[in-house]
Amino acid sequence: MRKLFSKITFWKAVAALILAAGAYSFYVRCTRGLGGSTHLSDQFPWGLWIGFDVLCGVGLAAGGFALCATVHIFNVKRFEPILRPTILTAFLGYLLVIVGLLIDLGRTFQIWHAIIMWNPHSVMFEVAWCVMLYTTVLSLEFAPVVLERLKLVRTLKILKKLSIPIVILGVLLSTLHQSSLGSLYLIVPYKLYALWYSPYLPLFFFISALAVGCAMVIFESFLSSRAFRKSLEMGILSQVGRIAVVVLAVYLTMRFMDIYNRHILSLLFVPRTETLMYWAEMIVGVIAPLILLSFPAARRSRTGLFLGSVMIILGFVMDRLNITITGMEASAGTHYAPSWMEVSITMAIVTAGFIAFGLAAKYLPLFEHEPVVQPATLPKQLPEAWIEDLTLVSEQYQA
Amino acid sequence: MISRKAMLIDITLCVGCNACQDACKEKNHLAGGKENALSATAYTALEEHDGVFVRRMCQHCEEPTCASVCPVGAFTKTALGPVLYDESKCIGCRYCMQACPFQVPRYEWSSTKPRVQKCRLCADRLAEGRPTACAEACPTGATKFGDRDELVREAVSRINAEPDKYVHKIYGQEEIGGTSILYITSVPFEKLGFKTQLDKAPLPNLTWNALEKIPGIVSVGSVFLAGIWWITSRRDEVARAEGRGSKTERNGRSL
């Protein structure tokens, strides 16, 4: 008991430290500008905040739309128990993106211009709108959880009616957003190193986001089960691992075919930093988890699944950072390493995300569905927006 | 029809006197002092490559990448040629800096209201029918201002007059769709830090190819997803009406 207590306070202390450092860096960022707080330069205008907060934040949220489509569109209700935490992760991922953007933008006080000053030729314009719209959609998708807690039955009913259009909109916006982050880099054929620059970048971003979406579902289920002492849905997670294998196989084949078709196979063996980082990304994030999760035994074991998902996530982050940093350094003619303030702000945002998730798990019906009103007083088809079908199904099983 | 203005920079004539930068700083009220590289306070600068001076500045592309990537349309290509930046629109995403193939735009990093800074090709002077400040200040004629078509012809005739001296190429004539700044030289361009790998195709097409697919993805995608939903939920309804378990659910089990 005492051990547990000290463990909890230790992590709380770490979190408090990170948040304090982040707050200080934020203060410096606001008073002394980007120059006083970051290692960004005219040669290297995009750094950690775009590479991690934005590119990875959006990617790590990919589990949300993939699972939403699986459950609500393809009607595979078996995945429903992990839907809510996944949507929450996606929502928090997008908040990471938004906070990251607000801090990274030089003229944040004019950010609203994106709403009224349109330039449809700009990928960044598409990105801006996807962020705005999809965050709205995610909050609507997550709203039932909050509404259930507040027992707002009428609003729940309205949302339930709108749920399918909302889900469809969410899937479309996500597809566009994931791929558009790749499209951002289509404009730099002479700057991004050839191992990463490809006309298929939008497609690669989308597919790798699907893979990391699967990995995030697994990863986060493990964390939740440890933190909140709930049992693990191993059956479901094994299936998710299986989907990840298929996605990774498609991704690996396409990445290789792309290198082959652009006649740059030789670049795979040139002794350069880029080559090393490319192989690291592909081995850690694609090849190794692909092999590991191909074994049914690994997918059934906790260690195997967890290890596989961690590797996919790591590889994904490496890919995005390789594209924003490693692959751009040669053409920029300079090296970039984030300043401690950049790192501390990113860490603070991520920490805030963890805390928000913890609070939500504690105070909201995130894992188990509690009926809003006693079934006796209300016909069963009425309020429980996201769970009605599940109860129906389980009743049918019992019958 | 308004003819596009341009500048021809003959690298063989440049003596590195820095009069262009001095004139530019005076005209644009920029902080003084000689600078050897582009910065937020130097819209133009002389780069020295083994004793040869290369004047760097915004190339004022015919199809500017910066204007295409800016989410709020803060960059415009004006009829006379200058590519202009409007700080009152800018949100500070720095995509222009990331995208510019010539690595030109500079940023006021230490400001809390930072602006992008770059050459404006003296758009106000051009509107009055006057040449750019730098061209007017150049004592050797290394920088010449004029109509773009005429300057291209002039460059060709200079190369033809001394074919052994000049490299047979006008840099900027065709690069990524052509630029308003043209260079000729006697030292190969690649030795002077020029980006010689640039193709003729303008860069904005690259992202437009992806962006133009959006309406198709949205319309086909929404119909497709709605269709799938209709089929799967209909299956459930039928299954329920027939009093057996959900079909998709059973199929899903064996997946």
Quick take:
The complex is a heterodimer of chains A (399) and B (255). Chain A has helices at residues 2-37, 48-60, 62-73, 83-104, 113-116, 123-150, 153-183, 201-227, 234-261, 273-294, 296-300, 302-332, 340-363, 388-398. By secondary structure, chain A is mainly α.
CA-based shape of chain A: globular
Number of strands of chain B: 9
Question: Which band does the percent of strand residues of chain A land in?
Answer: under 5%
What sequence of helices (H) and strands (E) makes up the elements of chain A? HHHHHHHHHHHHHH
SSE blueprint and pairings:
The complex is a heterodimer of chains A (399) and B (255).
Chain A: H1 2-37, H2 48-60, H3 62-73, H4 83-104, H5 113-116, H6 123-150, H7 153-183, H8 201-227, H9 234-261, H10 273-294, H11 296-300, H12 302-332, H13 340-363, H14 388-398
Helix pairs in contact in A: 1-13, 2-4, 2-12, 3-4, 3-7, 3-8, 4-6, 4-13, 6-7, 7-8, 8-9, 8-12, 9-10, 9-12, 10-12
Chain B: E1 5-10, H1 19-27, E2 45-49, E3 52-56, H2 65-69, E4 75-77, E5 83-85, H3 95-99, E6 106-107, E7 116-117, H4 123-127, H5 133-137, E8 143-147, H6 148-161, E9 181-184, H7 204-211, H8 214-241, H9 247-253
Parallel strand pairs in B: 1-9
Antiparallel strand pairs in B: 1-8, 2-3, 4-5, 6-7
Q: In words, what does this structure look like?
A:
The complex is a heterodimer of chains A (399) and B (255). Chain A has helices spanning 2-37, 48-60, 62-73, 83-104, 113-116, 123-150, 153-183, 201-227, 234-261, 273-294, 296-300, 302-332, 340-363, 388-398. Chain A is mainly alpha-helical. The termini of chain A are far apart. Chain B is α+β, with helices and mostly antiparallel strands. Chain B contains nine helices and nine strands. Chain B has helices at residues 19-27, 65-69, 95-99, 123-127, 133-137, 148-161, 204-211, 214-241, 247-253, and strands spanning 5-10, 45-49, 52-56, 75-77, 83-85, 106-107, 116-117, 143-147, 181-184. Chain B has a three-stranded mixed beta sheet. Chain B has a two-stranded antiparallel ribbon with strand order 2-3. Chain B has a two-stranded antiparallel sheet with strand order 4-5. At the A-B interface, helix 1, helix 3, helix 6, helix 7 and helix 14 of A face helix 2, helix 3, strand 6, helix 7 and helix 8 of B.
